Amino acid sequence: MTVRARNSHKEIHLAAHFPGVNSTTVWADPRSRSQIAFSSFEHLARTAERGLFDFFFLAEGLRLREHKGRIHDLDVVGRPESLTLLNALAAVTERIGLAATVNATFNEPYELARRLATLDHLSGGRAAWNVVTSSDAFTGENFRRGGYLDRADRYTRAAEFVAVARELWDSWTPDGLSRPFAHRDQHFDIAGEFTVPRSPQGHPVVIQAGDSGEGREFAARAADVIFTRHGTLEDGRAFYADVKARLAKYGRSADDLKIMPGVTVVLGDTAAEAQERAAEIRRQQVSPQNAILAVEQIWGTDLSSYDPDGPFPDFDPEPDPSLTQGRTRRGDSVATAEKWRALSRQKGLSIRQTVIEASGRQSFIGTPEAVAAELETFVRQDAADGFVLVPHLTPGGLDEFVDRVVPLLQERGAFRTEYRGATLRSHLGLTEPGGKG
């Protein structure tokens, strides 16, 4: 399939990610507020809607992470259940989409399809489901099925799960007729009648987050949006071309799947001021304690006796999966350790300084004008269709972007000046799926 040629008139899509519990959030900032209070979610969602964003996005945490047998400090505030929160937010917002991350491994199609269809009705067609999977037995201990699902099976179950949910949503016709459903396959054997009539946008929007070959293929087959972590122009263009090229085999066009990397933005009145602000944010994100914790996760051993302002261990990692529980592990620990030590030697950096430089999260740093131009370049050059902004502050982390960058994007003709429809599908430029016969 040929990916659409570069287009200077492509409109940028924007979404807001509630920072939640992770190493992006700066807890020590006096402007940081509760991760549980409804007012925090309401503020961020309303700010995103004021900025005409496509959707507001919540992550999911099904178990508190542990490190060395203790609850991970970043998880002590917990994380509320997404769909409950979004139903409440539907009452205090009007147009912005409401996206919940819900695990396809530890839920059942009938129940989840019903909850999502309910949100879609209550919000007037603004619901979205970010499909995630898990092969983590540690998380699975919270559920009856436990860690039964082999890693190789998680995407086959997820694909079947999404297909069943869509069968349920399509069991009601657009004119209000209900028909029995029946699905019998590898993972699900269910039959009956769905209780919720067809929702305002036909199906809630399906989002997928994943970078593996299986994840890309799943997105090409079943998703409307893919949430990625590719932050550079070169990596973004390669990912974009690869995923868009997979769509044709499923009878889909390039416009049927929106690619939206998660990004952070740091603004300043000058480029130098923005860089200094970004550096200070990284110092706050990577405290001395968090620097040692990051290295422990790579080395697989207790390094609490090491000085975060000192050198790295001189021995190679021996990965211990039980040291940190509930955290997704990426890459080869030995290769990462050598990369970090080489960076430390080359630049004369301490453990903490190296972790700050190696795990930097700011994607766009500069004046509002420079950031607006760079965002537009990414979309115009087919490195993304838009962006999911992940602020470092709760709940006011989007205020400056909405006030200073969005108007510039609008002046450039790169972003909407008003919502042109009522549903999330209309915001994203996605067609409504047709009902069955």
TrEMBL record:
Keywords: Flavoprotein, FMN, Monooxygenase, Oxidoreductase
Pfam families reported in the protein's UniProt record: Bac_luciferase
Record EC number: 1.14.-.-
GO molecular function terms attached to this record: monooxygenase activity
Keyword Oxidoreductase: yes
SUPFAM superfamilies per UniProt: Bacterial luciferase-like (SSF51679)
InterPro entries listed in its UniProt record: Diverse_substr_monoxygenases, Luciferase-like_dom, Luciferase-like_sf, NTA_MOA
Family that this chain belongs to: Belongs to the NtaA/SnaA/DszA monooxygenase family.
PANTHER family documented for this protein: ALKANESULFONATE MONOOXYGENASE-RELATED, C2H2 FINGER DOMAIN TRANSCRIPTION FACTOR (EUROFUNG)-RELATED
Protein name per UniProt: NtaA/DmoA family FMN-dependent monooxygenase
Species per Swiss-Prot/TrEMBL record: Streptomyces hokutonensis
Lineage: Bacteria, Bacillati, Actinomycetota, Actinomycetes, Kitasatosporales
